[in-house]
């Protein structure tokens, strides 16, 4: 009998037609963690096993346009549930909420000790639109996603994000959250141009944001 799995990676992969939840088990865990570190979401889950599932990594270039269209998006129409960051932060959190934001600043990787005594990596990313700015926290394998992001250029469509409210509200990744990086949709070019204008006006040595604030 094969040894019981002690852990795995959960990968949320998608194209324009739908989303698939895939699990990578210990036999390929280490190589998969490296191969899929650029995937929008890759998080640890409870022990499971599915020996019939495998991945074939395709090494090819697509000019960055394949699988960039958000699920159920129709050209020229706003995605259902899309709202400003300010509206989301002020309490309009709902199951199908979507927020389009741009990366403003990427913090350094931090190695923290959790309440359970285990080590975990954390990267805090400041994201914003024309209404608000806040922190978007990335933990463990997900933190590697930010390595290729660029301030005032990378845009993120956050679907069903979590909200940690308080004096300094922040956006959280939950099991239901999907992240589209540089999605092919309306308003992305406008948001990038807005971000670049704003960044040029701000002081180059502005301190890192410690919580949500209006832009």
Compact description:
By secondary structure, the protein is of the alpha+beta class.
Structural class: alpha+beta
Largest sheet: 7 strands, mixed
Termini separation comes to 58 Å
What oligomeric state best describes the polypeptide chains here? single chain
Order of helices and strands: EEHEEHEEEEEEEEH
Q: What is the number of beta strands? A: 12
Work out the radius of gyration: 18 Å
Number of helices: 3
Mean pLDDT across all amino acids: 75
Low-confidence segments: 27-48
Shape descriptor = globular
Helix fraction? 10-25%
Strand content range: 25-35%
What report would you give on this structure?
- With 215 residues, the chain is α+β, with helices and mostly antiparallel strands.
- It is built from three helices and twelve strands.
- Strands 4, 5, 6, 7, 8, 9 and 12 form a seven-stranded mixed β-sheet that branches. A three-stranded antiparallel β-sheet has the order 2-1-3.
- A hairpin with a 5-residue loop joins strand 10 and strand 11.
- The protein is globular and about 50 Å long.
- The protein starts with 7 loop residues before the first strand and ends in a 14-residue tail after the last helix.
């Amino acid at each position: 009998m094969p040894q019981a799995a002690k852990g795995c990676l959960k990968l949320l992969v998608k194209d324009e037609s739908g989303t698939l939840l895939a699990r990578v088990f210990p036999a390929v865990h280490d190589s998969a963690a490296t191969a899929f570190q650029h995937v929008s979401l890759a998080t640890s889950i409870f022990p499971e096993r599915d020996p019939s599932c495998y991945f074939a990594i395709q090494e090819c270039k697509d000019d960055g346009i394949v699988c960039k269209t958000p699920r159920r998006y129709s050209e020229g129409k706003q995605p259902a549930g899309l709202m400003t960051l300010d509206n989301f932060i002020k309490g309009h959190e709902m199951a199908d909420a979507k927020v389009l934001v741009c990366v403003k600043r990427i913090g350094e990787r931090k190695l923290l000790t959790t309440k359970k005594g285990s080590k975990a990596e954390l990267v805090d990313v400041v994201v914003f639109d024309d209404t608000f700015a806040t922190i978007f926290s990335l933990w463990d394998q997900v933190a590697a996603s930010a390595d290729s992001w660029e301030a005032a250029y990378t845009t993120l469509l956050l679907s069903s994000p979590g909200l940690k409210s308080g004096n300094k509200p922040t956006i959280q990744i939950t099991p239901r959250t999907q992240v589209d990086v540089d999605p092919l949709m309306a308003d992305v070019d406008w948001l990038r141009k807005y971000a670049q204008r704003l960044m040029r006006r701000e002081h180059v040595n502005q301190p890192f944001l410690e919580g949500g604030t209006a832009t």
